[in-house]
Design brief:
alpha+beta; five-stranded mixed beta barrel; about 425 residues; about 30% strand; homodimer; Rossmann fold; BirA Bifunctional Protein, domain 2
Chain lengths: ~425, ~425
């Protein structure tokens, strides 16, 4: 994509009321736009990052048998009264609204209730199980404060998968598969080395739930990390009993700040009981369905990547989520060639087209701007590779390629460059 | 996809309170689920149809220079007060809600205001124009009645593109390109032959706006169609002056019921004036940006296809939007073969895998069910082709392929079948 066709621009300063580092960088680099506190629009580059993260999550959910749907934001009061979660005393972050008739409706902050009600149409027999249903859907949460940028928004995209299993054993089996899928996701988006499967409070059905916590000072949680076992314990459940369960001692644990980037939870029969979601087994006996829920927010993942991987010059995207693998920069030639054209720009245009032919889409800074401005913008915007075409590189017969994460620079010929970007 | 892995099932009856033919069929066939009046969840098959329609629209928007973003549902009261559209007296279908602070927020029913405000950050000079920005986003409209199924929902996906042009001439040029893109879209989704560019009321900037009206008795609008010119006039603007403008006479027009599946509108400076969205031209003079808006609802398109193309047996999907190009049905063999296996099922499994290898994903009815049930479900669900594998087809050495739209049946060998589906 040509930068002159991208309508966004970088800016020196974020809005004064923006206190989160992730939103500050993302706004300055033109990835998001602050609509209200905790409410962010995604601009072209930001949308590309979100779509890359969504694509990775979708692949992992499909791989464990997930089937995709799209439920609704508007929620029926009657559905939520069945579990008692309509009440603002029970759930303190509802957004509610009113239909023309005067009837109340809510804006979904999660979807256990409506999906359990829906599955009653489709689950009757043991032959109808198991089912794994997921969606990417906008959730609304009326947060008291909204000071964490896109890491805790009032409106945000969430992937939520719900499992419907025959019995506890079948549930456990899927739960472990889902846990591994989550490990894969965080590894693929570039957060694997700093994300811990964290033991957190369970419910009546299961002693623990599992959070995926990424270590960062921007996090709101405190966890105790066991480096060797690559697990952690949420401060909320840190007791001698839990230490004994996990076979670890306090001495092995290090306290860290972290952000919950995903969580998986055994729901047992809490929702299937409330909605009488049951099936008839092979012997003709009626049994409740065992459920689980598995959540992850692509926006929070994006915010966490920015918080943890950026440096003093700006954002550093891992290759798998970057809006473009490379930022192609042309520094216009000082002198025109015999045909009156600008040799560096001519070569940059040619390379841009050649990369496109290879299926490599780069962001091409084709603006007429000073080199310093182009370099600063490239650092701020954070593509994994920066490719420079200039009089200097033309003379050397190669392209100057800088790796954003390490700062390392090399001279690469076209073929080597294509190999590097295609990897 | 195997039907045993699809959690939805067909049903004989739609919910009693469902009066729209499109929702009735879509619910019975397992494409959508009614959450509340005018609020529908999309099940796996329905989501695939929506994604196909979205894909077609996205291609056409990209082809005319559109750049994709994703704005927010939650809307700031202050933004909408600038045009007077916050008031419920001016806009009668707002859904409004409250933040914890007590401040009011709205749920976007359209996005002229927030996008115009946003573009102020990025449009300053004539060099920043033109810009064409679009999104696929959930809109909320508090409809009084909701009796048209997914054709007029309270919550629905909408593609809205907004154009920002230098002057009236540049705007007109893009407007015509967008009009052609819309013609392409309706042709590609299978509604081209019954969709008319319809003259409707304009605004202070432009005498007319243009609606895309698809003829159907389920529509809420009345239009006057000029078959030869392939245009129509909305009843609301049907005057002698308009007839003269278009060079047509009343005698050439036929009154029809129709549904508005898209609309394009010249906004002039209505929003750029309200938000002071201006640019400095080459002479250093400040000028207002000329805007246009271009809307189309994928759900309404889907509902309109069902209303207009279905028959007494169920839905008939055009190939470009069908969730799967074909429905592969196995009728289990009466007798096992020498190895104790069921020859028809063995062959159906082989064909299912062979088609997948060719990149042709079919819906495979691998259920153990009666032939009559499978055939009725296939007709109701509406894939363009039905492929039967049975003892009979095994004996004949080909597959029975039925074209859903025409009812025509042929016997095809594997290669001919792949050619047919790949087209």
């Amino acid at each position: 994509m040509r930068q002159t066709e991208l309508f966004t621009k970088t800016r020196k300063e974020a809005p004064k009321d923006e206190v989160a580092r992730n939103a500050e960088l993302l706004i300055r680099a033109g990835y998001v736009y602050k609509e209200m506190a905790g409410v962010y629009a995604y601009l072209p580059l930001g949308l590309r990052v979100i779509e890359n993260i969504v694509g990775i999550i979708r692949e992992e959910m499909d791989a464990i048998g997930g089937v995709e749907v799209s439920l609704t934001a508007l929620q029926d009061k009657k559905t939520w009264e069945r579990t008692g979660r309509w009440s603002d005393d029970v759930v303190d972050n509802w957004f509610k609204t009113k239909l023309k008739s005067g009837a109340e409706a809510g804006l979904g902050f999660t979807h256990e209730e409506p999906l359990t009600a829906l599955m009653k149409d489709f689950i009757h027999s043991y032959r109808d199980l198991p089912r794994y249903v997921y969606q990417f859907q906008t959730k609304f949460r009326n947060e008291d404060r909204a000071k964490s940028g896109i890491m805790r928004a009032r409106e945000f995209l969430m992937k939520d998968l719900y499992s419907f299993s025959l019995d506890a054993k079948a549930h456990e089996h899927f739960y472990e598969k889902a846990k591994q899928a989550y490990v894969n996701i965080f590894s693929r988006v570039g957060l694997g080395d700093r994300t811990y499967v964290t033991f957190a409070s369970g419910g009546s059905f299961s002693k623990y739930s599992h959070e995926f916590q990424t270590v960062t000072d921007a996090g709101e949680d405190t966890i105790y990390v066991h480096e060797k076992k690559k697990i952690a314990i949420n401060k909320e459940v840190m007791t001698d009993e839990v230490l004994a369960d996990l076979g670890v001692t306090r001495a092995d644990l290090i306290e860290k700040r972290a952000v919950e980037v995903g969580n998986i939870f055994s729901l047992g029969t809490r929702f299937s009981d409330a909605f009488e979601l049951a099936y008839v087994d092979e012997k003709g006996e009626k049994k409740p369905v065992i459920m689980g829920s598995y959540g992850i927010g692509p926006g929070r993942v994006m915010g966490t990547i920015v918080e943890t991987l950026s440096d003093e010059n700006g954002i550093v995207w891992p290759k798998a989520v970057a809006p473009f693998k490379a930022h192609l920069i042309v520094l216009d030639s000082k002198d025109a060639d015999a045909t009156g054209r600008n040799p560096a720009r001519k070569e940059a245009e040619r390379l841009y087209a050649a990369l496109a032919t290879q299926g490599i889409e780069v962001l091409y800074d084709d603006r007429e701007a000073r080199p310093g401005e182009k370099f600063a913008d490239a650092d701020l915007m954070g593509m994994p590779y920066r490719i420079v075409v200039s009089d200097k590189t033309l003379a050397s017969g190669g392209y100057e390629v800088k790796h954003r994460a390490t700062g390392k620079t090399e001279q690469l010929a076209e073929k080597a460059l294509i190999d590097r970007l295609g990897k």
